[in-house]
């Protein structure tokens, strides 16, 4: 294994050619101005962290990218920095293909049992470095493999059933690497984890609000998921990785309101949804709870064509809720108006809201 000071180029010449590139995705981008830039790719069950050192010569490939990124990152020019990062990611994704095949390829014809949440959260990580050698950009193995550790928080005496990731079978990935349709003890549920996000604030807020909804013994007509339990770390450290809640079986067309072709939905159905959503939001506000991040994408239409309010992590989304109204009743009402607008209904339907 190479060290950070004595790097050896990866030996990939003997790897057979593949007809198509292995699928991969960028999971995080860090640094790039005062710190080394690190871009993390995920391919199958492994993470590849590629480092561009700020000590790189300016005339090197990696140095030139860092130089180009400096001004837009410092000035907050998101459009320009995204353009440069996209170009850099395209370069790295191409250079990584032989590495992906060497370390992350799945053998042809191999069969795998249904994965558990452990398989998706605890991934092997390889550290790589981009270095220009004789004018050519090359990847060097710097460190690895090591086992990644997902973010977590300390259990603050939450009195809920607790399950380990290895006990939770994955049926489908619903949202990135954080929300899953899962099976536990024969029941289909929804698992939501912090994953590799930097903050635990969102999931702590969601657990707190869902607990308060349950304790309030609200109107049974309220359509929000029920908190079923917590996901612990695989060891017995007492750390919590996420939560378990009801899985809402969506209709045959799409899962969320925003994905529907609204023009094809009869007006009477849209009017019914408007009243149901408004009434449920009113029920939440009456017990002092704020939905947060109110938008059509956070409403699930179930198989019986009823809307469910989901995602109590808070925050806001541009064009739905203003930043200065995030996590407030005012923000919820602004989001509700935008949802009614999305449903192509006039403001008069806003009056069905029975708020505090």
Quickly list its features.
356 residues, 7-stranded mixed sheet, Phosphorylase Kinase, domain 1, Transferase(Phosphotransferase), domain 1, 27% helix, alpha+beta, single chain, 3 domains, globular
Number of domains: 3
Structural class: alpha+beta
* Strand tally: 15
Overall shape: it is globular
Number of helices: 6
Largest sheet, in brief, is: 7 strands, mixed
Radius of gyration: 24 Å
Q: What order do the SSEs take from the amino end to the carboxyl end, as H and E? A: EEEEHHHEEEEEEEHEEHEEH
What's the helical proportion of residues? 25-40%
Q: Which assembly state applies to the chains in this document?
A: single chain
Give the low-confidence spans.
Answer: 1-7
Proportion of β residues? 15-25%
The separation of the N and C termini measures 63 Å
The overall pLDDT average reads 88
């Amino acid at each position: 294994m190479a060290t950070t000071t004595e790097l050896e180029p990866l030996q990939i010449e003997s790897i057979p050619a593949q007809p198509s590139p292995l699928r991969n995705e960028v999971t995080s981008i860090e640094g790039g101005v005062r710190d080394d830039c690190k871009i993390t790719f995920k391919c199958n069950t492994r993470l590849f962290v590629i480092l561009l050192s700020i000590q790189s010569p300016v005339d090197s490939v990696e140095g030139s990218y860092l130089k180009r990124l400096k001004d837009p990152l410092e000035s907050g020019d998101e459009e320009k920095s995204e353009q440069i990062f996209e170009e850099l990611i395209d370069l790295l994704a191409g250079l990584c293909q032989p590495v992906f095949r060497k370390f992350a390829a799945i053998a042809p014809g191999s069969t795998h049992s249904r994965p558990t949440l452990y398989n998706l959260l605890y991934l092997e990580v390889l550290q790589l470095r981009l270095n220009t050698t004789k004018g050519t950009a090359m990847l060097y193995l710097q460190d690895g493999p090591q086992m990644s550790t997902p973010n977590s928080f300390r259990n603050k005496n939450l009195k809920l059933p607790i399950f380990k990731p290895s006990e939770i079978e994955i049926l489908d990935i619903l949202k990135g690497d954080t929300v899953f349709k899962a099976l536990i003890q024969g029941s289909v549920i929804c698992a939501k984890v912090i994953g590799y996000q930097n903050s635990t604030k969102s999931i702590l807020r969601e657990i707190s609000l869902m607990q308060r909804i349950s304790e309030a013994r609200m109107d049974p007509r309220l359509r929000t998921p029920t908190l079923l339990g917590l996901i612990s770390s695989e060891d017995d450290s007492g750390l919590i990785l996420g939560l378990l809640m009801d899985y809402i079986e969506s209709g045959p067309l799409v899962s969320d309101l925003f994905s529907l072709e609204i023009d094809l939905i009869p007006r009477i159905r849209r009017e019914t949804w408007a009243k149901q959503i408004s009434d449920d939001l009113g029920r939440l506000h009456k017990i002092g709870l704020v939905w947060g991040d109110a938008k059509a994408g956070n409403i699930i239409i179930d198989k019986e064509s009823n809307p469910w309010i989901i995602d109590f992590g808070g925050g806001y989304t541009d064009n739905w809720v203003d930043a200065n109204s995030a996590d407030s009743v005012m923000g919820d009402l602004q989001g509700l108006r935008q949802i009614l607008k999305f449903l192509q209904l006039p403001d008069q339907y806003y009056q069905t809201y029975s708020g505090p």
